[in-house]
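Supplementary notes for students who missed Thursday's class. We covered one full example, reproduced here. Read the sequence, then the structure, then the short commentary at the end.
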Amino acid sequence: MVAAVAEQKELDDLVSTLGGNKLKMRKPCMEGTRSDILQAIETKVKNTSGLNMIWIRGSPGVGKSALAASISTRLQDQNRHVISFQFDYTQSTTITTDSLWHIVICDLAHLYPSFRQYLVKHNKEHSSSNIDRLFKNLIETPLSSLGDVLCEELLVIVIDALDECGGLRHDSSTKDDYEDRLRTLKRWIQADHLKKFKLVITSRPEDAITKMFPDSVSTHINIPSG
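Structure (token representation):
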């Protein structure tokens, strides 16, 4: 009992240190709307043998954020493990790729006991300022030790407005964060043991994202305008 309390305190301290800024997801779709699209997304999320990235693409204003919020809510209502994150170009200096992965690490620690134990055991690694090293040491490696996870307990990460990471122009002051985001997400879909965990992202159909995640490695769902 004492050991468990000490471990929980150590975890709480680590989570507090990792932190990570997060925005509240926008409002979901109105009741009874977008049912066909939501069902299609949900079906693809539950297809464990399918591609693990589902990319919802469309022009500004077509309702991508509402879809992201709705799919998060629908899956949570079914007791699925969901981590939701939203980028915003107006807060590109605080809502960053670093924040995204810190939030993911903290939530994973609460969801999976073996991940939590790994995080406490390797507590010195959380201080890394290198996003690639942090991703490998505190996400990729510990998730490889989870073993078999029931389908209904598999993690789903929903990332809204991916194209707004680092601002809209991705100029020299935010270019690094923009490239960090694409590089670490690519590692998620390449690592064999991570492929069972689904990623749902929304963004405009940006060329850089299309080149990084063609339809051979991600499922594209296009939302028409008008």
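Commentary. The chain is about 45% helix and 15% strand. The chain has one domain: 2-223. If anything here is unclear, bring it to office hours.
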